[in-house]
Amino acid sequence: MKNVYRSMFAGVFVLFTTGCASTANNNFNSLLWMQSSSEYQANTLQAYNSALMHIDAALGDTLWTAAKEQVPGCSKLPPAVVMDIDETVLDNSRYMGKVVLENGQWSAETWDEWVALKEATAIPGAVAFINAMKKKNVTVVFISNRECGKRDKSPSGCIQETDTIENLARVGVADVSPEQVLLKGEKDGWTSEKKSRREDVAKKYRIICSSVMIWVIFCLMSRKISPRPSVSGLWMKTVRTGGKNGLYFRIRHTGPG
């Protein structure tokens, strides 16, 4: 009987550890593809360029709206574009690289440490798209599930909003006001479900484009690209970049494959 239990335990252990390894490898492969593949960069650029091509038509047609939350009479409202932030405008793959290489998991605490560093880079095409909106007098409103929360020795208010605005400025998106950044928990009723925030924006603006539209274009194009590379057969180099609260990683493909 003891042998039976030992066999059962060994089987469960192998299954559990294999599942963990598989998840880690999948995350690693995804990060590798995002950080090193020319296909990813080309597709994000093309997605934003394709969205930009439709903006003039949207501006010219006052009945055009990209939001089902749009209120009646929206044709008289000023135009706006609604965008997510993370992995739409800001690239947080260095944070995820740290998680993967340390065999860890995403947590609210380590994520907030990363937000405080304000070191996320820009998704290719995002900054040019946002700055093009400014030139066309289109307001860009960011709706993100970055969460407002207390932080030791931080001033009152949503310090995460301040960090986010500063990070956006660092990548080239300047002069963003707090009114343009709507974070989870910033107001009562602003939960992870973004509908209430979109409704708030739709009362003030005619929403002519959203990041949902942009990434639908991206997903359609992504179906045509080659499969993401596997780790096997690649020469890998890990570049570690120092941060105030730890090391954050960029994974680079430096060899053939």
TrEMBL record:
It comes from the Bacteria. PANTHER family: ACID PHOSPHATASE-LIKE PROTEIN. Keywords: Signal. Residues 1-23 form the signal peptide. Gene3D superfamilies: HAD superfamily/HAD-like. InterPro entries: Acid_phosphat_B-like, HAD-like_sf, HAD_sf. This is Acid phosphatase (Class B). SUPFAM superfamilies: HAD-like.
